[in-house]
From TrEMBL:
Limits of the Methyltransferase domain: 66-343
Signal peptide: none
PANTHER family per the UniProt record, alphabetical: CGI-41 METHYLTRANSFERASE, METHYLTRANSFERASE-LIKE PROTEIN 25-RELATED
SUPFAM superfamilies named among the record's database cross-references: S-adenosyl-L-methionine-dependent methyltransferases
Gene that this polypeptide is encoded by: Mettl25
Full protein name: MET25 protein
Organism: Origma solitaria
Membrane-spanning segments: none
Top-level taxonomic group: Eukaryota
Length: 527
């Protein structure tokens, strides 16, 4: 009841007088309570039909827990949408380090173009592919040496010993993979998007190899070749070198084995020639007016994805989707709401500018404005605070007192420069203030240490007030985020060429606070 909730504020002063009612109102207007979200399970069930989901690579040991969760959840949804609409090309906007892009190409065999405005990100993606080749060669080389040192014989000649030897080989190979992983943590972090072969190797080698060797009468060499080739099938075609039979020439091959290897080699070369690359990192700044065909020469029917597209990029991604006939579907998770541009924030007439908020005609007609403070609040994580991950009160206090200093001492109320993550690098409040002033290009020589500490002492007794104020912002945060998300959904609902659109809670909000995906499919995508 709007009238009931309005009594949380004093009618005359408009100050908050009932915190409990304020919290209830915030909960009432949350997405989960409004009932506007489509459950992820329902979406997947509708998309899959009778089709079995893919199984295989798990990125847990190659990514941090948050990124692994995001990539697995989103890639499964994207694959189901792509299959439903009969498309194989995916464009990942704001692809960053390529975690999602490379996993989509590796796990689901989709052709992915990852577009990022930062050349360092796209260069990093190329470098990770290069490092994967280097480590894969080392993996192959080590496996070849083990084979030669073991002096393997046909499994059907010595079945019991063969089983033992096979286990030894497999343990050696897995230990080798583990050694590679531990060699250099930085390199492994770079390998995150393209790795996964140890996950595939583990079940195949540990459970199937010995039994197959004993009962099937195959050589260790042939079986190992098949294991490695099975692994190659899940990697991007350009991520590894051709698997050559010369690497494992431990004895004469039968005609059947020679034929099998020749066919495998031809298949590998054919795959490389037809799909020379499954993941293409590209550098380009994306705006609402971007022509994708200028960036992607072989643009075909595709879908667009974005995992935590920042600020206006999320809004522009939706605009490109609605405008380009080649793009049949979209799955977008936005973030960094504080960086959104707002049409009605500064009351300046800029007729040609494309704004991040509002998008839908309904809010435009009302001249709706959030303001930067509200958008900053939308970035807070209520679910994390609810499970005990409290706000960084001290750093927020430092920043609040710094704001008083720069306004009273320097007369600055607005600046295009940012303090950034100065708190974590500072040894004291004095150090924090001086570092911050340098970042803001303000002369700190006019401010003695004693003056800085005077400000600290003046306000430190109000730290509890600041903490309470920030907790109120946290409670309100979902409502502001909901407004931004519903604006995007309404924009899609206003378009005539959209068959279905919805909001889906895709991630666990404790692991990944920006957890809602905006999803849409065009009319012709399902015909």
């Amino acid at each position: 009841d709007d009238d009931l909730f309005s009594s949380a504020f004093c009618e005359n002063s408009e100050k908050l007088i009932n915190v409990h009612l304020f919290a209830l109102a915030a909960k009432y207007y949350s997405l989960s309570n409004l009932g506007v979200c489509t459950p992820l399970e329902d979406v997947l069930e509708a998309l899959k039909g009778d089709r079995e989901g893919a199984t295989g690579i798990k990125p847990d040991e190659f990514m941090n827990n948050k990124k692994s969760h995001e990539v697995q959840m989103m890639s499964e949804l994207v694959d189901n949408i792509a299959n439903y609409c009969g498309i194989k090309q995916v464009i990942d906007i704001g692809s960053g380090k390529g975690y999602l892009s490379s996993f989509l190409s590796m796990q689901y065999n989709l052709k992915v173009y990852g577009i990022d405005s930062s050349s360092s990100n796209t260069n990093g993606a190329h470098e990770r592919n290069r490092k994967l080749k280097k480590h894969w060669r080392a993996y192959q080389s080590r496996g070849g040496k083990i084979l030669k040192s073991q002096g393997l014989e046909k499994a059907n000649d010595r079945p019991v010993e063969s089983e033992i030897e096979c286990k030894t080989i497999n343990e050696e190979l897995l230990n080798n993979a583990s050694t590679l992983k531990n060699q250099d943590q930085v390199i492994i972090e770079d390998l995150v998007p393209s790795c996964g072969f140890t996950e595939m190797a583990t079940p195949n080698i540990n459970t199937g190899s010995a039994a197959s060797l004993v009962t099937g009468g195959q050589s260790h060499e042939t079986k190992l070749s098949e294991e490695v080739l099975a692994i190659l099938n899940v990697l991007p075609a350009d991520a590894v070198e051709d698997f050559s039979s010369s690497h494992y020439n431990c004895g004469e091959l039968s005609e059947e084995e020679k034929t099998q290897r020749k066919m495998t080699s031809l298949k590998t070369k054919g795959r490389k020639s037809s799909e020379s690359n499954l993941y293409f990192p590209l550098t380009s700044c994306i705006t609402a007016e971007t022509e994708l065909s200028d960036i992607i020469t072989d643009l075909e029917d595709c879908m667009m994805v974005g995992l935590h597209t920042c600020g206006d990029l999320a809004a522009n991604t939706l605009r490109i989707f609605t405008a380009k006939p080649e793009i049949k579907a979209i799955c977008s998770v936005g973030c960094c709401y504080h960086l959104l541009s707002e049409q009605f924030e500064n009351q300046e007439e800029c007729h040609d500018q494309v704004w991040g908020f509002p998008m839908c005609q309904y809010l435009k007609d009302k001249g709706w404005c959030c303001g930067r403070n509200a958008r900053m609040s939308a970035c807070l994580a209520l679910e994390r605070v609810a499970v005990g991950q409290m706000l960084p009160t001290e750093s927020l206090f430092y920043r609040a007192v710094l704001q008083v200093i720069i306004e009273e001492i320097y007369g600055v109320t607005k600046s295009d420069r940012h303090v950034g993550k100065t708190f974590s690098k500072s040894s004291s409040f004095i150090d924090y203030v001086r570092r911050s002033l340098k970042k803001l290009e303000l002369d700190d020589s006019k401010l003695p240490d004693s003056c800085i500490m005077d400000y600290y002492e003046k306000y430190k007794h109000r730290m509890n007030e600041l903490e309470a104020f920030n907790m109120l912002k946290v409670v309100l945060a979902p409502c502001i985020e909901d407004l931004i998300l519903l604006d995007r959904l309404c924009y899609l609902k206003e378009q005539e060429n959209i068959a279905w659109s919805g909001l889906v809670k895709l991630f666990d909000p404790v692991k990944s606070p920006r957890c809602y995906a905006v999803i849409a499919l065009k009319n012709q995508s399902c015909t």
